[in-house]
Every structure is written in C-alpha cells, then in structure tokens.
Design goal:
The chain is α+β, with helices and mostly antiparallel strands and 484 residues long.
Length: 484
C-alpha cells in the first residue's frame, strides 16, 4: 500500500508538470518610455486561454480597511489587509487563476504570462499564494518597483502555487518583469527605458546581476537553491542563466514559444533573426513604437513565413495554425495600455481593449477615470465578482444572456468561417472605428482637463459617456458586419 501511495503521488506531480507545460497562454510586449512614439511606458498584451471563457470589466473603488481586517486566500492562507486599498481597473475572467489584469490609481499595471518551471515541489506555506498575488499588488503598490518588492515579499512569505510565471509590473516611469517559480524563488529585471521586450510562454530573464539593485532584484536563495537541486554548477556551467536553470526544458524547445519570439523580436528590432538564435531579454526597437505598430504585431499570424499554414489565408483561417500564433486561436482579449506621464491618471491612463481577438475587433479606448462600465460588460458588482470568481457555473456561457461579450465572439467566429474573403473587409471596419476613436479621444481629453479639478462629477460623466458611446459604436458596426 505504501508503495502504491508513493507511485500515486509521483504520478500526480508528473501529471501537474505535463499539464503546466502545455500552458501556452499569452503574449506581452513591453515598451520603455524612450522607445515609444509618445514618450509613455506601454504594455501590450494578448490574453490566451482555452475553453469557454468570458471577460468582465470592472472599476473597483478604493477604500479604507478596518484595523485587523484580513483576506483569506483560495488555498487557506490569511493575509492582513492594508489600511487603504487603491482603486483599480479589473479585467476579470471567471474561473481562471492566472488570467486577470489590474491597473491601479497610481498607474501600476500587472498582467502575466505562463512560464513553466522544472520545479515540482517548492516550499509552500498554508496553501501558498497564486490567484491573489496580482490583486494584492494592485491594491497596495505605489509604483512598479514597490509592486515588484511586494510580490517578492509575498512569494517568499507564502510560496507560489503555480509551476511558474512571468508577471509584467509597470507604471508611468518604468516596467519590470517578475519571474516566479513554484515555491519561494523569484527574480525581477527592469526593462531599460529605450528598449522593448517580448514575452511568449517561457522565461526570458537570462543572466542577472543581483548587485545592480536598480535594475535587478531576486530572492536571496535563488542561485544557492539551484545548486542544491543539482540544476546549476558554477564550475562547469558558466554564468548563472535563470531561464536555462529554472525553465522546464520543453518550454524552451517549444516551437509555439520559439516561433512567436522569433517573429516578435525580428519585427520589433528590424533584424534578420533565425529561429535557432539566442534572443535578447530586451533591445532597442528599429523605430519608436506607436499604437498602430503594436496593434499590427499583436494581430500577427506568421504571414509571409514558413510557419503560416494558411498560406496568407488561402488555406483557411490562420487560427487553425499548427504552431501557435501571436494572435492565437484561444485569444480572449487584447489590450494596449498607455501609462502616460504629465496628465492626471484618470485621463492619462488610456487602455485600448479589443474583446476576444484583436485582429478583427477594434481596440476601444477606456480611461482609468471611468466609474462604471456600460451595462452588458460585466455580470455583478466587483465585490460579488471576486467572491464568485471560482464558483461560477456553466450558465454564465449562455449566449442568450445580455452580455456584450458574445457580440465580439460572434465577429471572430463569423470571420473565421471565411477568413480569406471576410478578413480584409473586417480590417477596414476595425481601422475606420479606431480612427474615429482617436479623434473622439482627442476631443474628450481637451474637454476633460479644464474641469477635472473644479467639477470632478462632470469630469467623471465625460469619461463615462465617452465609454458608452465607444462601446455602442463598436456593437453597431459589429451588427452591420454580422448581417452581411
């Protein structure tokens, strides 16, 4: 019996590890403020998650918490709440542990990419921390760096429950990649201001310099732990390389990761990389990146390369590609967040969001100062949504319910049915909408700035009315397209 139990435990660990290795979800582009056309830090992200999904959009208001108030994690650990929780935008995917995105009132954004590690065990206390990590960063962080430091503290205190992941933690001044491994080990590296970085679903942090604390932070046991586990030998392996030491080998050799990395780095750098090359953590872009550049890259299907099974759509939809695209079949939403300086963040935080797939749905501009999203873009209050996040049943995927989400899903499905003939027309509609949105955004910002201090309620109404109009325009154009 004892032997059987040991075999069962071993099987479960292996099953978990194999499942995690298949977790090829998400693409992220980070643009330093000196590498963007507007002088802003920009984070562009495709959230890819298979199966039935839905996305809710919430604004969580900041609040003071009572002394002694606590948050109970999903697995049982209890963490004290701060004296004050900051307000946040929350893009929620019910039932998903690692898919949500947050942006708080201080301009701190947190999103993530699955990066499977070789760690099967790791030290976990009281069930560890997983889903709650990004929420705590958003509620507490004053800056990207304090968000990284808080994430490191929480991981070392509780132990991380997932196999591995890279979190992008950015603000108006800088962006960091925070790579975590199951248990209590982590490393974070700052993206230089004049660089861009791309992340598929493997660790991209390689060599590190933990003495340069302005640009690199790590758990104190990171290297020693790898030596103890037999993953790294300083005498024979050369300089410590985090990705090589801690990654599950299969993620580093997966063409789904290599192909996307090769495509993104080649386009962003303007250089002729080969798939077998060693790709840089970050690099100067061939030109300063504008919104249109990032939209195009997020919509990439390997067009014009040997990885494009659709042969420029002549063989059907590129979303049936054998090698995962940057614009993947299981993309659930895409966003481009401009974390702009020199403006109050209510208007300076401008996030362009395309539900379902960004290659066919227009990026709608949302501002941090919104107080409530239009009806049909969320299910409940933010409080109930958080309480119910892991308790939803299949009825939420009933398309007869009044959720605008299904309208954007229908556009993606309709286009896929005859991609070659419908995609060009859909792109034309999308670009026309986005040109209109840019003009509307310019007018909003011009009207907003003179009133936001003296007439805050009027300023809020301007943003809420603008958002409602943007969404209504998208739905109207979508419906016209679906009737063709």
């Amino acid at each position: 019996m004892k032997k059987y139990l040991l075999l069962l435990i071993a099987f479960r660990f292996v099953a978990f590890h194999i499942s995690a290795q298949e977790d090829l979800n998400c693409s992220t582009i980070i643009v330093g403020k000196a590498a963007s056309a507007t002088g802003s830090v920009i984070v562009a992200h495709n959230e890819d998650d298979g199966g039935n999904q839905i996305v809710n959009f919430y604004k969580i208001q900041g609040k003071d918490n009572r002394k002694g108030e606590t948050l109970r994690f999903r697995e049982g650990a209890v963490e004290p709440k701060p004296s004050h929780s900051y307000s946040c935008l929350w893009f929620e995917m019910p039932g998903q542990e690692f898919a949500d995105t947050y942006i708080n009132e201080n301009g701190v954004l947190v999103t993530s990419n699955a990066c499977t590690s070789k760690e099967l065990y790791g030290e976990i206390r009281d069930g560890g921390i997983g889903y709650e990590l990004r929420r705590l960063i958003a509620e507490r962080a004053l800056s990207a760096r304090t968000g990284v430091e808080l994430a490191g503290y929480l991981v070392e205190k509780w132990g991380y429950t997932g196999s591995g992941r890279t979190y992008t933690i950015a603000d108006k001044n800088e962006a960091w990649l925070f790579a975590v491994v199951r248990g209590k080990n982590w490393v974070a590296k700052r993206v230089p201001d004049d660089h861009v970085a791309y992340i598929p679903n493997y660790y991209t942090i390689t060599e590190i310099d933990t003495t340069d604390t302005d640009n690199c932070l790590a758990s104190k046991d990171l290297i020693k732990y790898a030596i103890r586990r037999g993953w790294y030998n300083p005498e024979t392996d050369g300089k410590f390389n985090f990705a090589r030491v801690y990654s599950a080998e299969r993620t580093l050799t997966s063409m789904a990761n290599i192909g996307r990395m090769w495509m993104a780095v080649s386009i962003l750098s303007g250089k002729d990389y080969k798939k077998e090359d060693a790709f840089p953590f970050s690099f100067p872009p061939v030109k300063k990146q504008a919104l249109s550049d990032l939209e195009t890259l997020l919509a990439n299907h390997y067009e014009g390369t040997d990885l494009d099974d659709s042969r420029n759509y002549t063989n059907g939809s590129p979303h049936a590609n054998k090698v995962q695209n940057i614009c993947a079949s299981h993309q659930q939403f895409s966003f481009i967040a401009e974390l702009r300086q020199g403006l109050p963040f209510d208007i300076g935080g401008r996030i362009w969001v395309a539900p379902r797939r960004g290659c066919v749905n227009a990026y709608m501009p949302f501002y941090f100062g919104i107080t409530a999203f239009p009806q049909g873009m969320f299910m409940d209050t933010p409080e109930k949504a958080y309480e119910m996040h892991f308790r939803r049943d299949e009825s939420i995927y009933d398309r007869s319910k009044p959720m605008l989400w299904w309208n954007f899903v229908s556009v993606a499905e309709f286009t896929d049915e005859d991609f070659r003939n419908r995609y060009p027309e859909r792109v034309r509609i999308k670009k026309s909408l986005q040109q209109d949105y840019l003009k509307m955004a310019g007018r909003l910002e011009k009207d907003y700035l003179p009133v936001y201090k003296k007439q805050p309620q009027k300023a809020e109404s301007l943003i809420n009315d603008f958002t409602r109009q943007v969404v209504e325009m998208a739905i109207s154009e979508n419906n016209k397209y679906l009737k063709r």
